[in-house]
Amino acid sequence: MFAIIESGGKQYRVEEGLKLKVDRIQAEPGSELTIDRVLMVGGDAPAVGAPYVDSATVTCEVLEHGRDKKILVFHKRRRKDSRKTQGHRQEYTAIKVKAIQA
Asked: In the structure, what pLDDT confidence band is assigned to residue 43 with cuts at 50, 70 and 90?
């Protein structure tokens, strides 16, 4: 069974036992997190929400908080002798999917 969830304005396809990184969530590492923004539940009897599936939840365990690799943002305006370099590190929360209730 799989589910498509929404977290931080992005959509993720999750299955039980899957580890993934989502945008930073305010939760303590080691705690349980229940996500109720389930867009679709697949499997034997698929269900599609409008926009969310009623009474469908995904239970996750918060593993850690961290920051991704640095990316460089470079802006250059040609023939103007103008350029700007900016760095960015996205904060994330690593979660592990424990159960999907449809």
From this structure: confident
